[in-house]
């Protein structure tokens, strides 16, 4: 079991993910999924893309796409991952984040495949990973990076999943919500530390979370502020705290002109 206090909603999702993995293993063995992962085309440099963007004095935007959310319902009618990827790329996004969870977010691995094929941006698989099979599956579907949610994993699980991802030359974004999770994430090798401004218990967002945690992240790591970022002023606020990379999705996806909204956000 995870060595953190997992909120009920997350615990429910994680329980369902273990069932999904068992079903997946019946259809495709771990060895076969590993073979498929290693046969996939080489990954794009997710971390390197962010570093290059920041070095150029720009904001490293990980632009997210998801069909719906448990609380907000359908986000963007006519959702077309390939079209969204092209718009994000043209508007200056550095990387993509694609929700592949189907039960709660309406996603599918095909969304990531279509988005990545439509542009040159590296893509993060945004899902709830709890088993090595899912990491191999992520690479097999073309993901260049995976998300590890520290609230959902024990230290041992996080290390195991990270080691597999690194063996496949994938980047890892370790997501934290508080200081304890951040300390645990810093025990991993990844430089990418995502600070989620969303409270898992109340589902409210507060940019003060990043303002508190980001300054405590060592200089050799790369902070990524997540959730609650809606305006260029918010981007400025996160940069002032030390986060020059951000992950934004739902707010942008709800705007009629996605390209203009993305460009405006990055005009900070």
Automatic annotation (TrEMBL):
Listed PROSITE patterns: IGPS
Gene3D superfamilies: Aldolase class I (3.20.20.70)
EC number: 4.1.1.48
Transmembrane segments: none
UniProt enzyme class: lyase
GO MF term list: indole-3-glycerol-phosphate synthase activity
Catalytic reaction list: 1-(2-carboxyphenylamino)-1-deoxy-D-ribulose 5-phosphate + H(+) = (1S,2R)-1-C-(indol-3-yl)glycerol 3-phosphate + CO2 + H2O
Pathway(s) the chain acts in: Amino-acid biosynthesis; L-tryptophan biosynthesis; L-tryptophan from chorismate: step 4/5
Domain of life: Bacteria
Pfam families for the chain: IGPS
Coiled-coil regions, chain positions: none
Keywords of the record: Amino-acid biosynthesis, Aromatic amino acid biosynthesis, Decarboxylase, Lyase, Tryptophan biosynthesis
CDD domains assigned: IGPS
Domain Indole-3-glycerol phosphate synthase: start-end pairs: 11-264
Family: Belongs to the TrpC family.
Name of the protein in question: Indole-3-glycerol phosphate synthase
Organism of derivation: Sabulicella glaciei
Gene designation per UniProt: trpC
């Amino acid at each position: 079991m995870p060595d953190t206090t997992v909120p009920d909603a997350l615990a429910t999702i994680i329980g369902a993910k273990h069932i999904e993995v068992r079903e997946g293993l019946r259809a495709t063995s771990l060895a076969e999924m590993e073979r498929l992962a290693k046969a996939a085309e080489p990954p794009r440099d997710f971390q390197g893309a962010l570093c290059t963007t920041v070095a150029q004095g720009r904001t490293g935007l990980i632009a997210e796409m998801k069909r719906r959310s448990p609380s907000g319902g359908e986000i963007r009618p006519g959702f077309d991952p390939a079209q969204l990827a092209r718009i994000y790329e043209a508007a200056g996004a550095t990387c993509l984040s694609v929700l592949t969870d189907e039960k709660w977010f309406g996603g599918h691995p095909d969304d990531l495949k279509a988005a990545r094929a439509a542009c040159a941006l590296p893509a993060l698989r945004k899902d709830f990973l709890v088993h090595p099979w899912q990491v191999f599956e992520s690479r097999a579907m073309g993901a260049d990076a995976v998300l590890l949610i520290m609230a959902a994993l024990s230290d041992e699980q996080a290390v195991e999943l990270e080691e597999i991802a690194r063996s496949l030359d994938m980047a890892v974004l370790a997501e934290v919500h508080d200081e304890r999770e951040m300390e645990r994430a810093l025990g991993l090798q990844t430089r990418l530390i995502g600070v989620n401004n969303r409270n898992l218990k109340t589902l409210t967002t507060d940019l003060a979370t990043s303002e508190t945690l980001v300054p405590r992240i060592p200089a050799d790591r790369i902070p990524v502020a997540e959730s609650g970022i809606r305006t260029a002023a918010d981007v400025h606020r996160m940069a002032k705290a030390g986060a020059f990379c951000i992950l934004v999705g739902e707010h942008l996806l709800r705007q009629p002109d996605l390209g203009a909204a993305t460009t405006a956000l990055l005009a900070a």
